[in-house]
Design goal:
Shape: globular
Bound molecules: phosphoenolpyruvate, cobalt (II) ion
CATH architecture of the largest domain: Alpha-Beta Barrel
Distance between the termini: 48 Å
CATH superfamily of the largest domain: Aldolase class I
Strand order of the largest sheet: 1-2-5-8-9-10-11-14
Order of helices and strands: HHEHEEEHHHEHEEEHEHEHEEEHEH
Number of domains: 2
CATH topology of the largest domain: TIM Barrel
Largest sheet: 8 strands, parallel, barrel
CATH class of the largest domain: Alpha Beta
Structural class: alpha/beta
Radius of gyration: 21 Å
Strand content: 5-15%
Number of helices: 12
Number of strands: 14
């Protein structure tokens, strides 16, 4: 197939292209049956919300807003609980407060929450206790349990995924609408993440300064400004990976355009972002804003081909380029990519994912990430954009509100010897709440 932005598209046209990272279902008929049922389900998000995010990202592309995207590497259905969702939302809100204060710009919050259930994998198989098993591909596909039968891809998990995403999003919306995120009362946000942190004072200062400004606006009756802080905008995102699922949630809207109604924002992963990719074919037909992961192996000609397919009209904010090179590779690669993207004229949002290029394995086989490597990539990313007269418009983190020990110090509350204590991730190592907030403060110093 010759992929082009002029070729007719439909939600299933991806099937004629190179499909990587898809599970091998035993029974295609049951996949079709599940997809038919999914296609009857109500949308999880609305066009108005998607277009509002598109507008916010247009601002971010122009340097007027800063994007904070974060959440789990792989959400598990079992984590769809009040406690887990509340604490994840809290971390994101607290980080965004610090970033808003530092940048003096509104923060766009996008969660890797409510649908981040499918994972690309580097290997097809893994060995557990001497037995070779198909890898875990996320709760949307198979079970994390290291049991051969449960590792078989199960189509009905797509329905479970939809229902867990719906429950998660419903709860987060209820929290936000109910005033949980009201900037008038950030003092009500549980501060346990920063108890004992060296940033405790700085956080209080940021919070007090923001509350003061709000009181001032109320005094002078700046009604519009007050309404803006009363409720925050929050958006849901996940990797558009499992294509039968994404296709089933894609609908033609009354305005004659197609949208994915399963999330506001979708991104294409590093492993599936290549020309002639089924994932690119799928994404080019939907109106939702789109992220593209870019790493050391990304070739700039390919990136340009993909960008022209996804954004033929050069719409500001349509594309967010999420770079994830690693602290030792960013200097070699980011400048060449910035150069080419600049020449192309696509008005993109640049985001830094300092997680995925900085994964390492400890002597006892645990996947981990060092906080200093994560911060070093952020610092270099920021400096390279500045040097090249470009703008870093956002950041992308894997984090959780639970007190896990998956990434470690030199700074923060976890040392390498603590890693085994609470290592729970279903996929990549995540920052815990305290580490995530620490990162926000370090980042704030760069952005000020
Ligand atoms: C991810 O974001 O969880 C991921 C798999 O990233 P990447 O595609 O950049 O490797
Ligand atoms: Co990950």
């Amino acid at each position: 197939m010759n992929q082009s932005s002029q070729t007719p598209w439909n939600p299933g046209s991806w099937k004629a292209y190179a499909t990587r990272q898809q599970p091998a279902y035993d029974n295609p008929l049951s996949v079709a049956k599940v997809a038919d049922e999914l296609a009857t389900k109500p949308p999880l998000v609305s066009i108005g919300e998607i277009e509002r995010l598109q507008g916010a990202l247009e601002d971010a592309a122009a340097g007027k807003r800063f994007v904070l995207q974060g959440g789990d590497c792989a959400e598990c259905f079992a984590d769809c609980t009040e406690a887990s969702l509340t604490s994840k939302l809290k971390v994101l809100l607290q980080m965004s407060l610090v970033l808003t204060y530092a940048t003096r710009k509104p923060t766009v919050r996008i969660g890797r929450i409510a649908g981040q259930y499918a994972k690309p994998r580097s290997q097809e198989f893994e060995t557990a206790d001497g037995v070779e098993l198909p890898v875990y591909r996320g709760d949307l596909v198979n079970s994390r349990e290291p049991v051969a039968e449960l590792r078989k891809p199960e189509p009905s998990r797509m329905l479970d995924g939809y229902h867990h995403a719906a429950a998660s999003l419903n709860f987060i919306r209820a929290l936000i609408e109910g005033g949980f995120a009201d900037l008038h009362h950030p003092e009500q946000w549980d501060l346990s993440f920063i108890e004992g942190s060296t940033h405790r004072k700085a956080y209080r200062q940021a919070m007090d300064a923001i509350v003061d400004s709000i009181r001032f606006m109320e005094t002078i009756g700046a009604a519009h400004a007050i309404e803006t802080v009363r409720r925050v905008d929050y958006y849901a995102s996940h990797e558009a990976l499992l294509l039968p699922y994404e296709e089933a949630l894609t609908r033609l809207a009354d305005n004659g355009l197609y949208y994915n109604f399963g999330a506001h924002f979708l991104w294409v992963g590093y492993r599936t972002a290549f020309p002639e990719s089924a994932h690119i074919e799928y994404l080019r037909g939907i109106q939702n804003p789109i992220g593209i992961k870019i790493g050391p192996g990304s070739n700039e000609d390919d990136i340009l081909t993909i960008m022209d397919l996804l954004d033929p009209k050069h719409r500001a904010g349509r594309l967010t380029l999420i770079t994830r090179f690693g602290e030792t590779a960013i200097e070699e690669h980011l400048p060449r990519i910035i150069d080419r993207v600049k020449q192309s004229g696509h008005p993109v949002v640049w985001s830094c994912d300092p997680m995925h290029g900085n994964t390492e394995t400890t002597a006892n086989g645990l996947k981990t990430r060092r906080l200093d490597a994560i911060f070093s990539e952020l610092e270099q990313c920021f400096a390279i954009h500045e040097r090249m007269d470009s703008t870093l418009g956002g950041v992308h983190f894997e984090l959780t509100g639970d007190p896990v020990t998956e990434c470690f110090g030199p700074f923060g509350d976890v040392q390498e010897s603590d890693l085994m204590r609470c290592y729970e991730t279903a996929c990549d190592p995540r920052l815990n709440g305290a580490q995530a907030l620490e990162m926000a403060f370090l980042l704030a110093r760069l952005l000020r």
